[in-house]
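Below: protein 1.
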Amino acid sequence: TGTPLTRSFELVAPGPETRITAMRLVNAHTEAVLDWDMHTGEKYDLGGLGIPPANLTAQVFWTGATPESVVFEVDGVQVRVENVQPFTLWGDFGGNTFLGPELGFTYGTHTIAATPYSGVDATGTAGGALSVT
């Protein structure tokens, strides 16, 4: 007879992964929501709305545990780590969203990506990201 083979294992319950589930487009100058749930491929006629591209910002929503920070990227470049709710692309003060930097958005196609983290300043565990083009 041979020696029995023994294997040990542990089953763990999945944690409540934090995932960015929606991104809304906001006119930071007026706080008006232009799109409550942005999707890839959408086009916005800013000229028809009388809004310069630099006035645009985005705010994210999530499922799971509340993130401690969210990293925002625009066109593949990290532009902000937001540590305070509401998590907005260019930040806010007292709920009033900031306008983009002088060289923020221009007319054309852009990609915004947001990744939540369990710790401040993009530390801890990264959750599920959302990217909208």
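Below: protein 2.
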Amino acid sequence: TSNSTSNSLSSSVTRQPHDHRGLHLPHGPTFIYVLGGSGLCSQLLNGLTLKVYYEDTKKKSFVADESQYKYRLNDEKGVLTGYFTPTFPIIDHAKQYPLAATHWNAPRYPPQ
């Protein structure tokens, strides 16, 4: 049972490369997880849990927004893109918000 769970998780994690240049997600609605508030470990665990839930159960694409998160590698890279190699799209800066409407089927992002 744990082997099938592990296989399911690994296939879920390797679905899409981290690339903002014209990336179109494979299925309709998108769930955008916004990092903020609590510590890094809590954010990573919550994000991965929600990624699996929304992709596998709700059939939604997953995008993480770390544009406003306090932990960053530098001005150009947030913590996810700076220290990890995400296999899902990341919003690093507010200037990438238009991608939500054009590529990720979230026309009203960010919420006002």
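The longest strand covers residues 30-34.
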